[in-house]
Amino acid sequence: MKEITLTIDDRQVKGEEGDTVLDICKASGIYVPTLCHKDGLSDVAACRICVVEIERERRVMPACTYPARDGLVVKTHTEKLERYRRLILELILSEHEHNCLVCEKNGNCELQNLVYQYGIDEISFPVNKLLEPIDDSSEVISRDPNKCILCGRCVRACAEITCQGILNFASRGSKTIIVADLSWPLGKSSCVACGACVQACPTGALTEKLAQFQGRSWEFRKVQTTCPYCGVGCQIELNIKDNRIVKIYGVEDGPDNKGNLCVKGRFGFDYVHHPDRLTTPLIKRNGKLEKASWDEALDLIVARFEELKNKYGGDALAGLSSAKCTNEENYLFQKFVRTCFGTNNVDHCARLCHASTLAGLSKAFGSGAMTNSIREFEKADVVLVTGSNTTENHPVIGSYLKHLIKDNGLKLIVVDPRAIELTEYAEIWLRQKSGTDVAWINGLMNVIINEDLYDHEFVESRTENFEQLRKVVSKYIPERVEEVTGIPKEKLIAATRMYAKAEKASIIYSMGITQHTTGTDNCLSLCNLAMLTGNVGREGTGVNPLRGQNNVQGACDMGALPNVLPGYQVIGHAPIREKFEKAWGVKLPSVEGLTVVEMVDAAADGSIKGLYIMAENPMVSDPNLNHVREGLENLDFLVVQDIFLTQTAELADVVLPGVSFAEKDGTFTNTGRRVQRVRKAIPEVGKSKQDWEIIQEISQRMGYPMSYRSPEEIMEEITSLTPSYGGIHYDRLDGHGLQWPCPDRDHPGTPYLHKDKFTRGKGLFTAVDYIPPAELPDKEYPFLLSTGRILYHYHTGSLSRRSKPLNNISPEGFLEMNPLDGESLEIKDNDWVKVSSRRGQIETKVKITDRVDKGVVFMTFHFAEAAVNLLTNDALDPVAKIPEFKVCAVRLEKG
Amino acid sequence: MKRIRSVEELRSLRKQAQKQAAEREKKIQVKVHLGTCGIASGANKVLEAFIHELETRKLSDILVLRAACIGLCGREPIVTVIRPGQLRVIYGDVTVDKITRIIEEHLVKGKVIEDWAVSEDTPWFKLQEIRVMHNQDLNPMNIEEYISRDGYQALAKVLTEMSPDEVIEEVRKSGLRGRGGAGFSTATKWGFVRNALGDEKYIVCNGDEGDPGAYMNRAELEGNPHAVIEGMAIGAYAIGNVRQGYAYVRAEYPLAIETLSHAILQARELGLLGKNILGTGFEFDLDIFPGAGAFVCGEETALLGSIEGKRGNPRQRPPFPANKGLLDKPSTINNVETWSNIPLIIWKGADWFASVGTERSKGTKTLCLVGKIKNTGLVEVPLGTTIGQIVFDIGGGIAGDKKFRAIQIGGPSGGVIPIEYLNTPVDYEAVTALGAIMGSGGIVVMDEDDCMVDIAKFFLGFTTDESCGKCTPCRAGIPHLREILTRISEGKGAIEDIDLLAEVGEMVAEASLCGLGQTAPNPVLSTIRHFRKEYEAHIIDKKCPAAVCAALFRAPCQHTCPVGLDCFGYVALIKEGKFDETYRLIKQKLPFPVVLGRVCHHPCEAKCRRAQVDEPVAIRYLKRFAADWASEHNIEYIPKIREKREEKVAIIGSGPAGLSAAWDLAMYGYQVTVFEALPEAGGMLAVGIPEYRLPKDILKKEIDDVRKLGVEIKLNTRIDDVTSPLKDGYKAVFIAIGAHEGAKMDIQGEDLEGVYEAIEFLREVNLGKEVKVGKKVAVIGGGNTAVDSARVALRKGAEEVYIFYRREKKDMPAIEEEIQSAEEEGVHLHCLTTPTKILGDNGRVSGLELVRMELGEFDKSGRRTPHAVKGSEYKAEIDMVIEAIGQRADTSLIKNGEVKVARGGTIVADPRTLATEQKGIFAGGDAVTGAATVVEAIAAGQRAASSIRRWLQGKEFLPLVERDGYEPITIPSIPPTEEETQEKARIRISEIEPKDRIASFEEIILGYSPEQAMEEARRCLRCDLEV
Q: In this predicted complex, what is the ipTM?
């Protein structure tokens, strides 16, 4: 970038070519008022408040769009400009009657600020008092057109951030208004309720509906923390009054979200204050859970666990840690299980989502995490998204991709059996049959090698085992792949060329790849593909699994897994075990523990007797729920620690009340390996306790001393034992956090992995053959059922279904069915159907949609009352032990 | 059609097309011009009828062809007849029923029907320079006709003989500037796009013509679409990396879209669009994008957005389309007419193009002449043609002989250019300097019936509706400007509003995002600039001088009357036969109905809406009828004195101004004395107007009414010092001395015996003095005094009376009827003639040396300035000269400058309060305004009385006349019947025959009978009853 020098208000200031005059003014501390400008949105020069005088221009010019040049002479505050600005403000004020007295934005309104600054107490024009009706149809957003100044920030936020383009201007001249869709009430429009418009609105025209009359800007205490929903790790600012969260803003400087949030992150926080919150420990007496004191509960837990341990040995006990809890809590939990229980029987729900990623990516690269950073997609030329319904499950990344495609020239390939929203943005969409991923990936590689599109130098110098790969993929000629996957060979070839010829190509995937009996194979294949084209180890490339839960990455990192200690240090390695034994002062078991589904099996067959579950809900999340219930009910002793009485907690002998994200300190590690702070914003509810304190107390009572005074102290211990977290200290985490690996205090963190060298040394090609899913439709069960999530709910629904707006928007589950199937089964929209598999049966409503292909049905697992996991197959991937949620066979009957 | 693969093939196609054209020339051709307006006027029916008739008559040898609009919009449907070897003949207003005669007489017998033919020997045709419009006589649906006229030869030339840079250079040399309005150099614009980085560029034709009153692009697209296509192909070649162009044509132009679409298809078929054009490897294609009815989409960035499928909102520049245009690629947008000029520049050369025009504005411009103009239509003139030439020569002046006021050029983005600037050349700089813009060339001509506040309001209403709503100044500023204008037009404005308009207007113009907002205030700013007084009239006087702003009045007749007489009211009463009430209604507001019924210049009739049906109601004669009827029936109306007051007021002069003031002051109870220097009361009414127009006894009777009200009139009493009455105990003085001194011509011989000043001549005659009248009398001048003098001279026994006037007859200030009567009586009118010397013999007039005048540039009043024609001097034998070239007041009564006298000899008083700078002294009438009309003098008297009353009561002056206490008279509110609104000429008034008139000073106009009056009154449309 060329440096340029300008004269602004008789001052010499510097900027870069490509900057606008406003950019340079801001950077140089020269104040220019703005209204329609907002960082992160395009500039349209609509409000004209930022007009400046520029030498040799006949007219005043908006600073927000004027390209700065070397030698430009600018005046920002002449008498004329101030006069114009006053007039413009008067004009804006005249368009509607602005009443600040009951305005939500009072004190935080950009218009009010300017009017105050310019001291406008009289308007030269008649004020239009005509009241427009307020649009209150949305569950989360209130639109008051009387406060709208038509700056269009909401329109641009909708179009450029979320890329929904729902809001737009309608009519002309002084009748111009902003409408949703074709002038529909917002609640009836295609609005996804992300609230980007609300955050962008400079006035009170768009406000958080639930925050109405709950407090004014100056009354709020503001706490920045990390969103508790998905793995994107959006930075949020809680606005708190009287220890209640009133509203949430996206932190504009948030490294991965840049102010953007989804509907859950912005509006789905009210569960924190839900009356269902557990406030005291509960003990099951006579089959009923009754309130108890902490001492009673803890004493009982310690007594029962010790009893079982003494009677059956440590391996009869197990713990399920939580991807919702902090790194510190996970660390402590696995430490507790390993030290107090004396077993490696510790796992968490990562098993159900990305275990195969961990297995596959670790094998191929040496590290199981997203290779690159979220914000690196803007450096990519092509992104291949497969098995990820990004816009619903990682909405902020989803809309970021849409924005890059729309405005940045990014090309998208989607490989997905469902017509997810991203397919509308894809240059090429390959619709494979569910469970045929290895086949199409091999097909891609077949074409790449045949057309000599692979990166010879990379393959030679950075990888091993290429010849074996070549041999296996040579069988996957496009014709054969078409047969297996249903992807037309021309499309396959076109997609191959687009991916392979890109200078920088990145792969995004998620559970559509991992939740298969061949999950590990799928992941390995994607690694093969990336390595073959040299798309690893560079900015904007890589293999990027999007992690589902807010801290599933961290829970894995912390060793809440049966085979590894924190930082993926393998438990079987004696030197590593010794290091921990020394630090923890106990002997550690060397045998790998049981995984989630294995624990259930073990409980069912009686080899596991006691289970401690922290903030997990297997009774909704795990496959083959009847079997899960059987297992859990067969336990001698079950402890569940959570913030609500979940379906799992209902089965517990003791329930312990933990705290929500808003009540705790700690860290979450997002899908991009970024460790970010979680900050305590409100006091614990009732007698609930910090999760780490609960673990510490049980541990102490079981005779293993723990005396941490804060999560930060726990982190210091993590840091000392975990090389990849070696430099992660709380005092370094304000601002943008740190991306591991971060080995020491001076290390800046690692945006992308495998630069110059793979973690494991050389990248390993693993030749994989296609294996069909464990259960496919047949005569008896003719439909293929796939499961997943929707935008408005989260995981087992224990949080999101207790959020009033989220549950109002999406109150019930449904089964997606292709119109052709609907026709042949004579099933219409909203009809009830009975869905049964070899494992169970549920009833649900039907939504007829061509998002699913003929013969395929889809359900979400958020709704316990129609728990799809009663149907799913608990067949496991042999390596990663992940169940095959994505494919099972079902039968449909009209209800 | 076969694809053309090379330049040679194009040439041979041209040859073939020319041969076909020549074949057609050998036959009789009937061309029916099928532009949109032609079709709207029924041209399609005419075409069908010709075909049918000729078939029926088996005249298959006669060709019936279709052609495009040739601009004679006012005469549609138009048919051109061409017979081999003869000049073409254009017929206007050709309806189906005229066809038979055209066929029989002209087509068959070769006899031109002169009275239907449009003469081409007129400035309309002669001052035009047809270039862009040169193919409008062809069939636009046939590409071969275009090729026969060297169509696509320019494209062939650039593709084979010129480099892109040479093309741009040629365009630069031509000086072509954007014809869409902004006037940016086309070559420079192309150069920007050529030099912009990018291997994909676009060119766009802007055919979103949206200005009210502009339709030149429509005609061009309908008539000559291939010129646009060829121009764009040349542009694409010159700019480089352009493979696709778009023509953005508004959907409201279906015929233009049809014609252009057809032309594009034909061009593609011939290979003149598409890949490998003429075998040169050059590729370019063109598509039409129909606009969706938003005016703002004529703005280039909004237009681009619209093509991109977005809301047609303008985008901030920079970046300019040249760098970031359509789909963010470098693009150029040029207007239809700009593109149409390109093939001509290439084919005929830059020098040819630049051979007309001005220094900085070369070539021709098409203009649409609409509004109050005789010859409505589409013309093409060299840039630099003056507004006066366009309006008066080409346009034929104002329809209905109303007075020209201004043109609005450039549509809502433009501004008004008033009458003072008729000599301004229409080019980019000159028009912009006057606060307007060239725009696409729509010229709306406005006359005295157009209100400038209303015009500004109209255009601001247009831009209020058409603003895209994106930027604040335009979206919110323009409606407020309009609101302020509305306020003013309703008489609710404050004088500060003018500044507010200017202040907001300036901000909107400077701070708006796009051209729409930047130019939208132009109509306001330019009308304020040129017509500030009219704004003030609305605000201060609550008057709309054009009688347009309806909220200010009940009916235009009343509003226009200087004394605000409810004309509609007395006409309505006459219609009902209520003559008594009629008289009282009039007399309440006007003390001299008998006088004004005879001599008023009746501005009311000029605004009478009945004129739009046939001719105005005879408002003045109806007043005369009522006054005469009252007089005959001895009906007297002397108002009740409101409240007796002691204060004495002196009025100097007993003319209509003085006596009206006296009447009003006396009515309000003041003690009024009128001082009259002459032996008779009445001022000009008595000594200026001849008896045959205003009989003395009638006048006396009305003056006696003034005396009856208690006013003392002291005759033969000259006031020598204007301040003396104040010293004598009068509390206020009103100077109403009129303008009784004649002006001199300053030529040799004015001191000869037999040379009179007209005013002196009339006075002498009126006072019964012996005046010796010559045999051959010359009157110099064109006003009422001149005409009166001429007619008096006739009656006094002159054998020959001549009026010499230096301008044209239509410019004569005298009342038209009077001029007509004078001519009927035998007065010889010699216009465009002026005396240079009065010849004498023995100290007596013996003749005149005269010179003929010719008219040159326009003066500030909009009349052409007369110049002497060298060598045209001639002599006339004359023995008496009456100079009637102007009058002024005798201001000798102002001794010490107590009251200011202006350079022209008029007394200075505030035009609204009539107060002079000297406290207690007021002045009005001709002495202040210069020679004006009787009714204006009466109005001045009433105004003075109003001010004097407030002065005497110690109140602040008001700008409006305060006059109240009228007796309630119910005016019937019965609207006219259907029948009464049907066309019907006014009832002619009886007059004495001209030959009998000149024998005496008998009154020549006899007046209406009651029946006639009632019948005439039935013609009134009762505008006052309109909601």
A: 0.90
